[in-house]
Write a structure and sequence with these properties.
Length: 407
């Protein structure tokens, strides 16, 4: 049996299923993260570290502040690894998510371990999220391009040290430089298709909205961890006046928090949620628009099962688990014609795609899907079949992950 060490700032993250599966197979599994209150996973010993910001850290040049924070996390993680080594734990394999800098000095502590990297995303000026949306990013300045290039420094260090790497989608792998792509296997994190499955009789009560949704209701759902431009919240809101004109009985359910996960924060004292809600509020029947905040996963699953249309918009960026969960429940997805979705959805076969920047096209596509709901069952079935065949956790992805780490 082997010894495995998982490193992820927000452990368990993408390692939620793999780490306990290795432990169940008889391997010794240890994990390191930065959260102190972490759900216990069977057979996994967890340790936390905490980076300390030295005095004067804020005086770093703007281009170096982000890199400096990554180095601090790398130093803190390596100190925790050195303590583990002193206590007698030396891993055979280290699997690290390098996105916050924790991979910087792994090789200095464990020079003989096999190092695997979770290659989630690599930044570039073209083809991805950076400067994609002209409403929020004009022609980049030289300083902005320099900062973007530096954002990859810790990722390049990790990839150069790695024996192998893993990306969840082909789009995410192909964001990386050609010199390291041959190291990167494409294996998705996995969707539990036994849990996320259709239920024609599902209904859901949303206390936050004071509404109960039942089979047959024209439920249009929008889900994002945070209601922000990266996930197309502004485009969705701008589509609603026309959608309500076309389908006045539709109920719009918007799930997500008030902050920002990926892009810039809203202007001081405001939220993106309020900014784009207020922009179109005068043209909306707000009695049929329900902001429900963040939902427990069980409730979110029920909402997916009762949804007539599930909308998912995104910049060219990391693909959300929620999209594949929705497809697994048999949702009819109307999404943005951006690279992450085009890898999963073929327009007219297992979903519908519209131009990201066209709210009117989004409104008309959703309205048409609602009007033809009874005739689009084949798309819903194909959506689930796509996930079952290519992204199923227990039958496809987890076995492939096990083969990857045990190679």
């Amino acid at each position: 049996m082997a010894r495995f060490l998982f490193i992820h700032q927000n452990f368990p993250g993408q390692f939620r299923h793999l780490a306990p599966a290795l432990a169940a197979a008889g391997h010794e599994v240890v994990a390191l993260g930065m959260r102190s209150n972490v759900e216990a996973l069977p057979g996994v010993r967890y340790f936390a570290h905490q980076a300390r910001v030295p005095a004067g850290a804020g005086e770093q040049p703007a281009q170096l502040r982000d890199l400096f924070s990554k180095v601090l996390r790398g130093e803190s993680a390596s100190a925790a690894l050195a303590r583990l080594k002193e206590q007698g734990f030396t891993p055979d394999t280290v699997f690290v998510h390098p996105g916050w800098g924790e991979a910087f000095f792994v090789r200095d502590v464990f020079p003989h371990a096999r190092v695997l990297v979770y290659a989630e995303y690599y930044y570039a000026a073209e083809g991805g999220d950076s400067f994609f949306d002209p409403e929020f990013s004009k022609q980049p300045t030289l300083a902005e391009l320099q900062r973007l290039r530096l954002r990859n420094t810790h990722l390049m260090h990790a990839l150069s040290d790695a024996d192998a790497a893993l990306s969840p989608t082909h789009f995410q792998r192909d964001r990386h430089p050609a010199w390291c792509r041959e190291k990167i296997s494409v294996i998705h994190d996995g969707i539990d298709t036994d849990r996320f499955r259709p239920d024609a009789g599902a209904s859901v009560s949303l206390a936050a909205a004071g509404v109960t949704l039942r089979p047959g209701d024209e439920v249009v759902t929008f889900v994002s961890r945070q209601l922000e431009p990266y996930r197309g919240y502004h485009i969705f809101m701008r589509a609603l006046p026309e959608l309500q004109r076309l389908r006045p009985n539709a109920r719009i359910v918007i799930v997500g928090g008030d902050g920002a996960s990926y892009g810039a924060a809203a202007p001081a004292g405001k939220t993106w949620k309020a900014i784009f809600r207020d922009e179109v509020a005068s043209g909306l029947d707000m009695r049929r628009v329900h902001f429900v905040g963040k939902l427990p996963h069980e409730l979110l699953t029920q909402l997916m099962q009762v949804s007539a249309v599930y909308t998912y918009l995104t910049y060219p960026f990391v693909l959300s688990w929620s999209l594949l969960e929705a497809m697994s429940t048999g949702c009819l997805v109307v999404g943005s014609r951006t690279a992450p979705l085009e890898e999963v959805i073929e327009h007219g076969r297992n979903g519908l795609l519209t131009d990201f920047f066209d709210p009117q096209a989004l409104a008309h596509t959703v309205a048409d899907a609602l009007g033809r709901r009874s005739s689009l069952g084949a798309l819903r079935q194909a959506a689930r079949q796509t996930v079952v065949e290519h992204y199923d956790l227990h039958r496809q992805c987890l076995p492939a992950q096990m083969r990857f780490v045990l190679a």
